[in-house]
Amino acid sequence: MKRFRSRLTYANVISTLALFIALTGASAYAANQLAPKSVGQKQLRPGAVTADKLRKNAVTAPKIKELAVKEGKLANGSVSALKMAPNAVASTSLTPSAVTNEKLAGDSVTGEKVVEGTLSKVPSAASADFATAAESANPLAFAAVDLEGNLNGSLSKNVGAVRKAAGVYCITAQGFNPRGAQVTPRNSGDGDVSAYVTIGGTEPCPAPGVEVRTYKGVLTSAAFYVSLYR
After folding, report:
1. Quick one: pLDDT at residue 211?
2. Rounded CA gap, 72 and 6, in Å?
3. C-alpha torsion sign, points 62, 63, 65, 69
4. Tens-digit pLDDT profile for residues 90-116
5. Are 204 and 166 a contacting pair, CB within 8 Å?
6. Residue 211 CA neighbour count, 13 Å, CB half
7. How many CB atoms lie within 10 A of CB 81?
8. N or C: which end of the chain has fewer CB within 10 A?
9. Rounded CA gap, 159 and 153, in Å?
10. Is the Cβ–Cβ distance between 214 and 221 less than 8 Å?
11. Mean pLDDT across the stretch 20-33?
């Protein structure tokens, strides 16, 4: 001990203290001044980074790996309508029967969205058919014509003069252009007679005239009834 004290000089103490300060100061500096990117995954202990250690808003969308968030990671009610981008849900993403009548908003399906062929007859359309049939039962013009082309006034209405030429009769309605017609041969008792009507004009009976032809094997004059529709 005396030998050690004899060598303990002021210079030795000062140099030893300086060395100690240098070494401990460098260590402290190194601990507080880490080089950028010097700490990686290998330097982190398992479980070292917890939710409490993360700074607020530290994890942003660009930091999340694609497909990293699975369905099981989503809390109930976390994805609301306000969180969804426009057109985010496409028709291919909907499961069959996902959209039911109860899910449709009022007046959301307009006529432009409906395929007409998928519609059945509605009550108003059936009423329209009934109205058409009722109008047909009382035609606007009709006539009873004999084989010479003469009108029976008591059985005729709104029909003008009839022109005749060998089984071809041209009839003109009064006040309108017929868009429909029906002809029926009158029973004459001398064999079967056929009658045919043409609207829209023919060479011997230009529009708006209606042509009636009567046959008994060949063109033959015959009596008939005719009805004309607007």
Report:
1. 95
2. 77
3. negative
4. 878 788 887 888 888 887 788 777 777
5. no
6. 15
7. 5
8. N
9. 10
10. yes
11. 55
Q: Do residues 195 and 222 lie in contact, with contact meaning Cβ atoms separated by under 8 Å?
A: yes
What pLDDT does residue 90 have?
80
Residue type, 110: T
Parse the chain into domains and list their residue ranges. Answer: 141-229
Q: What are phi and psi of 64, to 5 degrees?
A: -90, 130
Q: What is the CB neighbour count within 10 angstroms for residue 224? A: 24
Burial (CB count <10 Å: 0-12, 13-18, 19+), residue 5: exposed
* Cα separation, 19 vs 222, whole angstroms: 142
Cα 199 to Cα 213: distance, rounded to the nearest angstrom: 12
How long a stretch of residues is the chain? 230
Reply yes or no on whether the pLDDT at 192 is more than 90: no
CA–CA dist 46, 42 (Å, integer)? 10
Contact between 215 and 193 under an 8 Å Cβ cutoff? The reply is yes
